[in-house]
Structures
1.
Amino acid sequence: MKIYAFYDLHGDEAVFKKDLAKIKKEKPEIIVCGGDLTVFGSKLDHFLRELNQLKIPVLIVYGNHETNELMEKACKKYPYITNLHEKHFHQGKVVFFGYGGGGFALKNPKFEPVGKKFEAQLNKMKKMYEELKVVFFTHAPPHNTKLDQIHGSSAGCKTLRKFVQKFQPDLMLCGHLHENEGKKDKIGKTKIVNPGWKGMFFEL
């Protein structure tokens, strides 16, 4: 499966057009947007409408410049766009788990029940699909990686890291910290990437 992921656009029309051009040229099967598509929700409908016109499934979560309520309401207008916050999406041999928001706290107790739900769903699906690939995408980065460093300190979420350490998804996508756009790291076998606003393609 070919995936295109981009993060932290913050309403930049020029960069968005470049993202769209790459998508039209390379034709991925899934598009992932990990939040902060806008500046505090401005022109959200415009960006979603443009993405919907690609007629490719778009999986999105909110960042710290949107709210889940705003994103959920907007996404319902567009058949190709799914707000994946606290949900999963399965296509072929790949399952996606999404979690939005955050980015400023070292711990997130609200994720713990969500993580348990993801655990149950993942265990059920692994029984059904022998070669299941797992993509976990969040807005905030996990703790203590190359993707959460600010001024020499780790600013990522320990709760997300704990989940990744336990379940070892094949790929984790995250963003939020613009200083770390394009960086890659690993937690165990899990490849962790911040695709940034310029976006990246992935093959699973």
2.
Amino acid sequence: MNKFDSIRPYEDSEVEEVLSSLCSNINVIRALLDSADNSLMSLLPFKEKIISLYLKHKTKNITSIHEYQNLFESIVSKVVSQSIDNLSVSGLENLDKNKGYLFISNHRDITLDSALLNLKLHQNGFQTTNNAVGNNLMNEKWASDLMRLNKSFIIDRSDKSKKDIYKSLNLASEFICNSILNKTESVWIAQKQGRSKDGIDYTDPTVLKMIHLSKRKLLSIDKCFNDLNVVPVSISYEKDPNDLLKTRELYLTSINTSYEKEPREDLISIADGIKGKKGNVHLSIGKKMVFVSDSYDDIASQITNEIKSSYRIHSTNIAACMIQGKDIPNHSFSNEEVDNAMQYLKERMHTMQDDMHSFYLNQYSNSIL
């Protein structure tokens, strides 16, 4: 038994069995029905059986992770064509196809941030990444199976004893370091736990501490992160399909000091993020970073600055600043583009009470301040 078995992505030998189980899973079938563009699908007799047979037909020749990712690429490409006006990427020339990298990214969408990066990597001949996901997304086995088929590994932050939490985080650290240093496989991880719901992108030093955990007695902090080939990634969405849900969470947290997620809320966010219109989306891939400070805080600040400086500004960011009376950075958008963005934001704000507006607009304005 491999010590990483409890957290690692699935391997080729496991693909057929996992796919067979997923094709018959009623939760997977219902998720597909819920996300179907054609509502007539729900009226079909024996619709669950029909979809199950369709899934089995679609996946019958898939026997490896690579083949599964080819299928996944076609799915993500369809998402891009249906929900994104233009997906652009910069910085691919900074990467070497023979190296493994630690991609540290800002985080806006639960699944698409890493999926869109991997789409561009795959399309340009690079190996896709192993993706760090919190165990809160793994509560439903079928969701866990789908993610682990797509090269996700688990970082367990659940409530346990301090000893158990330490062991879990140390194992995740070992997996990350082993992937990059020994297997030359890249890893994607968000710069902080959870999505940035307020538009403020910052790197949490505790994430860096977790990554360094298994090497802390062997390597200094700067040596460890220099060896891991850290590359900052900044993703920017012109429109966030989950902005209203994020606004509600921020507002309720501000008045109640706590926020309890509804059952399946993360799965709903995933579906909305995939289906919702996103306007233009840009991925900025930075250069391999060099660190000279043996301080988690200093390295976190350095990564934060790189991610923020490479963030691609959209017209919605400018419009949000104008509505709030905040300083407006230099930009090249026409008056018409800014007016259209302002109208879009105001139409969204009409659906909420006035004291929620600042929470909504901050998601767009804070990104560029």
3.
Amino acid sequence: MSLASQAPAREDAPRWFPQRSALVFCAPMIVNGTVLPFFPVWLETHSLDDHQIGVILAVPMVVRVIFAPILAMFADRMEERTGILVWSGLLCLATAVGLYWTQSFWPILLVFALQGAVFAPYIPVVESMLITGVRRWGFDYGSMRLWASVAFIGSTLVGGHLIGLYGGAMVLPVMTVGCIVMSAMGLAAPRIGRAPRRAAVAAAGKSRQRTSLSRFDLHLVMIGSSVVQAGHAMLYAFASIYWAELGFSGTAVGILWSAGVLAEVIAFFFARQLNRTFGAWTLIRFGATIAVCRWLLFPLDIGYFGFFVLQCLHAFTFAFCHIGIQRRIVDAVHEEQEASAQGTYYFYNGIFMAVATFASGYIYAAFGLHGYYVMSAIAAVGLGCVIVAWYLQPQRAASGGNTSESR
């Protein structure tokens, strides 16, 4: 039985907790919905080559993963962890404005890397806030998280339309607006206080294995899922450029990105039913398997509709894996370590994505679309890590596999 099913009544929850949490998570997605698909287009307006674009996109990811776990652990020790969101938003705004004065490789790299550092704690802290709502008051994670994906869709659609009108010049204004919204939503975030300490030493000792971040199988499944996500690196870095070369308009490219996120929204909408029907391990394994197949099909000449279908598979390659990992964290880690757990997962996600993004610049330059076969191999490695982690569960080994965790 998961912790969510043992949650107390909701009367003591902050007012409008699900709605406010959903809005707070929308804010960084306005930035991501612009940066992920269209920042490479802005970089191209500065006459940067594929290698330089790969470096500029990868270095901030490395910076994020260094700062995310550190600042997340700091947030766990704050009296109010959501207080860090305001500062993150304001500092992101300062770096977005700073990008207006950058024209060449090194200044862009420096300012964008700095943005990665100050952006780092925002999403892990918001994720921990949502999971706290699941633990304490039994709120549905998927119904809160899906609105972030809706915000990503809206930002991507608007961005695609603006790209068609103004080209890469639209990226920084939209990013600036997103950072302003991040700061404002940090003020609106529900205040949840520190996690309650475990009531008794005996109870803590009994659940130490369950609530410890030191469990190897927990780290391995987070690593495996993160490696699967790293298989998306070439898509994020070069898909918009490739689709534009095929003659797709900015609006058409925006629709392709939005199709993937809309499929993700649908998956999050049914997250409660998915969790009731399937175990966390099943969701992660299935999502990883679809990822292997998705990148094998991507280099084929499948036309606009074919790419649309492949984008819809994002519901499995991202959402299923993410829902499964969040459930594993809820079941395996105590609330007082929640932000730290999210920071750890964010670290793994970021470091593998950064390495894959850095490599994708060279792979795409050398092999073009055939580089997606490398992404498929990366996803297969992640799937292998997940399978090994499943076998290494101490509960599974102790009970002959007859636990909810072993599904």
4.
Amino acid sequence: MSVMAQIREKIEQTPFVDTHEHLIEESRRLSGALDAGLFPCDDWAYLFRHYTQDDLASAGMPAEDRRRFFAPETGSEAKYSLVAPWWQKIKHTGYAQAVRHTLRGLYGESDLTAESAPRLAEKYRELIRPGFYEEILRQRSHIEHCQVNSLERIFMQTAQPDLLRQDLSIVALSTGLDRDRVEAESGKTADTLDGWLEVIDWHFATYGPRAVAVKNQSAYMRRLDYDRVPKEQAEPLFARYAAGETLAPGESKALQDYLLRYCVGKATEYGLPVKLHTGYYAGHSYMPLQRLRKNASDLCPLLQDFPDTRFVLMHVGYPYQDEYIALAKHYPNVSIDLCWAWIINPAAGVRFVKEFLLAAPANKLFTFGGDYIPVELVYGHSRIARQGLAQALTELVEEGWIAPEETPALIERLMRGNAHETFPLLRNV
């Protein structure tokens, strides 16, 4: 058996620990309760919604056609006519390849065509039944567990806690300060900074023992330069915010910086890794690359000030991934997560794994997170990740950097071992 075949076989046999998803609850999928954001339609077009829609927009598909494509009232034949010309233009991107793998692996269709669309419409409905999350994730995708950053709640009290381990989102508590949302979800609010810190403490005391990590994605809104701000400076800022006053940009940043650092301290107290979004933006037509370029260097003071905190920097900082290898090599408290990255650019994912393993300790890399809302697409992404990981390790062996006999233990570490060592709810699994 060739080196490539041996590596592929081991990778196929080894389950992933999936370190990042945005899955909505299975019960919501079963109920068919739609909304314009997370679940706009309940038909095969939903498979093209998360991320693939951005490539459709980038290719030039008109906004009105995209709206009609995802509208629940549009028929299957009309949906195919709308998307078919644009599908041909994007079908080789990572986003589209995840869809194609899903079509093949879950529905037995080699591609989206005029002939397959009616069959796909029926097969889509047939798959959605009680237990289909576990079937797709564990049986089809060979995934032990998923870590879910809910986009619906600060902490989702899931009906499937063994399968869907949950992150505690600290956005509404800190960098996206939102007293209304916090009060709606928890019944807690405050008009003073001390009172708000008690609200944060309550969230950690209530959800920290059940959370697998904390998550923040403020990189979509701002730089990651979380400065040291004394409490005396933050107190009057919070009071003015609570009174309904609009803070100046610098004042808002100072308050966010203080609260983010307070949350990081609480995460450390509870032994929770801190996941931070870095790099590429979901969506289209608004990404400020100049700001993204600074994210890795902006984070250095935070990494230095919290040496006992495990920081997980997500999405490899694409397209500036070299800086994140440098951070993982230099800072003992930094790990890097390939979640989402395989479908942003599969070839870049292969290069990243090779360069990371030759520069940084192997225990500081997580190699899969689908980063999806629709559970079906996790399967497609997992196929790309297994292919990319196999290619990267095979090339490292063939180029003489790694001995063939070292690959089985390395595969085990990269696909699940690092997650078991790092995330508290996985340590005894």
